[in-house]
Amino acid sequence: MSLIQLAAAAAVQVHEPIHWVDLGLKNYLFRIGSFELRWYSLAYLAGILLGYWHLSRMIKAPGAPLAQRHADDLFFYCTLGIILGGRLGYATFYTGGDSAIPSMWLHPAELVQLWHGGMSFHGGLIGVLLAMLWVSWRNGLNFVRVADYISVCVPFGMMFGRLANFVNGELWGRVVTDPNLPWAMVFPDAGPLPRHPSQLYEAGLEGLMMILIMLPLFWKTRARFRTGLLVGVFTTGIGCARFIVEFFREPDAQLAEFARNTGLSMGQWLTIPLIALGLFLITRALMKPELASGRTAMAPSAA
Questions:
Q1: Long-range contacts of range 22-30, CB-CB < 8 Å, 24 or more positions apart?
Q2: DSSP H helical segments within 187-228, as ranges?
Q3: Whole-structure pTM value
Q4: How far, in Å, CA of 46 to CA of 303, rounded?
Q5: Cβ(121)–Cβ(128) under 8 Å?
Q6: What is the 3-state secondary structure (H, E, C) of 218-277?
Q7: What is the Cβ-side half-sphere exposure of residue 130, based on CA atoms within 13 angstroms?
Q8: From CA 297, how far away is CA 256, in angstroms rounded?
Q9: Hey, which residues does 37 pair with through a beta bridge?
Q10: Residues of the chain with pLDDT under 70
Q11: Kind of pairing, strands 18-19 and 185-186?
């Protein structure tokens, strides 16, 4: 057989996909009786704790708009916002399909059953924003400046959460169009066809990429002295990352027809306003002069 024939044969050879079950992954760290410590719970915990630790370091640098007591309040209320907002967002945006009322609202008891259904990124984001608004208003802080600092810490949780989705074998991607894609994967309960491991795409784009952008932007530049620049870059980046990943992510079964009818998935429609808001914040921040010291007036501490 000639070299040309060998090359042609290699070109048409179908790459054997990776089988998720062969990776030996489990969705829990350990089990005692009926209790399971799940990786997904640990991912949320790790993201929140690492974000809190990093925020505590950030506010020690010049220009901090908040003190440690404010960081402690944000840690508590943002944790509530992530859980409650993520759950309520899932019930609102991702259940019900074509019905007028999201189905989970018809069965409120399911809202507290965290193992039933999932968590919405956009709902969790709204929950965190409300938590930040409350802490900022109660303490007389500049909300946008607080958002700048929080935005640097969020990608940690995004990365851990998406890696946990992969370990759980959930939220898999669409069926691949290229049978030779080396990382195409067959997931349990997703049929025999190889799919994109979109959880890893999200971990890379929404998590690792944003970490590599946001941390140097804070520590190596004077971006924190431009009100709204950090949160603008984060909002634009996370919105673009999510919009791109949605092309590879399998739409929720109850919203597949919605995606076909509108041309975009629910996640993409919800992401477009984020991108627009981020670009507005970046433009506004760059048009205004840099803060002299970065500090804003803070309410006096309680006696």
A1: 25/166, 25/167, 25/169, 26/167, 27/167, 27/168, 27/169
A2: 198-202, 210-219
A3: 0.81
A4: 33
A5: no
A6: HHCCCHHHCCCHHHHHHHHHHHHHHHHHCCCECCCHHHHHHHHHHCCCHHHHHHHHHHHH
A7: 14
A8: 49
A9: 30
A10: 1-15, 34-36, 90-122, 252-256, 258, 293-303
A11: parallel
Q: Which amino acid is at 275?
A: I
Q: What is the mean pLDDT of the chain?
A: 82
- Token pair of 74 as six digits: 């944000």
Per-residue pLDDT of 103-144, as tens digits, reads 555 555 555 555 445 566 667 788 889 999 999 999 999 999
The phi, psi pair for 37, rounded to 5°, reads -95, 105
As a whole number of Å, the end-to-end CA separation of the chain is: 88
Q: What are phi and psi of 105, to 5 degrees?
A: -70, -25
The set of residues, in sequence order, having a beta carbon less than 8 Å from that of 6 and lying 6+ positions away, is none
Question: Number of helices and strands (H, E) in the chain?
Answer: 11, 4
